[in-house]
């Protein structure tokens, strides 16, 4: 499976899912309210909904970093 490398140079599957989720949230926010040929009307998304979704995705990433630091001491 494809995975990105984190800041320590190790492969991170979690980081791939975080990046894809972040991209999906941004696309949804940018396209909110637009009418697309294949999908029709994209439901609106408020700034509050965007903020909650972004916070949820970032919490996953921060949780991974916190767990990694607790288990491995944060070193290389």
The secondary structure category is: mainly alpha
- Write down how many β-strands occur, each being a DSSP E stretch of 2 or more residues: 4
Order the strands across the largest sheet as they lie in space.
1-2
The major β-sheet equals: 2 strands, antiparallel
Unreliable stretches (pLDDT < 50, length at least 5) are none
Radius of gyration, in angstroms, nearest whole number:
16 Å
- Binned strand content: 5-15%
- Count, helices: 2
Helix-residue proportion:
55-70%
N-to-C order of helices and strands: EEHEEH
What separation lies between the terminal Cα atoms?
23 Å
* Mean pLDDT over all positions: 82
Broad shape: elongated
Transmembrane segments: 42-62
Protein name: Transmembrane protein
Keywords: Membrane, Transmembrane, Transmembrane helix
Organism: Thiobacillus denitrificans
Give a written overview of the molecule.
The protein is elongated. The protein contains two helices and four strands. The strands form two sheets. A two-stranded antiparallel sheet has the order 1-2. The mean pLDDT is 82. It has one domain (11-72). With 76 residues, the protein is mainly α. It comes from Thiobacillus denitrificans.
């Amino acid at each position: 499976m494809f995975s990105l490398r984190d800041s320590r140079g190790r492969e991170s599957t979690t980081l791939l899912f975080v990046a894809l989720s972040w991209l999906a949230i941004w696309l949804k926010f940018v396209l909110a309210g637009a009418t697309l040929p294949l999908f029709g009307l994209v439901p609106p998304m408020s700034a509050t909904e965007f903020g909650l979704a972004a916070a949820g995705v970032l919490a996953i990433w921060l949780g991974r970093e916190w767990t990694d630091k607790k288990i491995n001491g944060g070193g290389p």
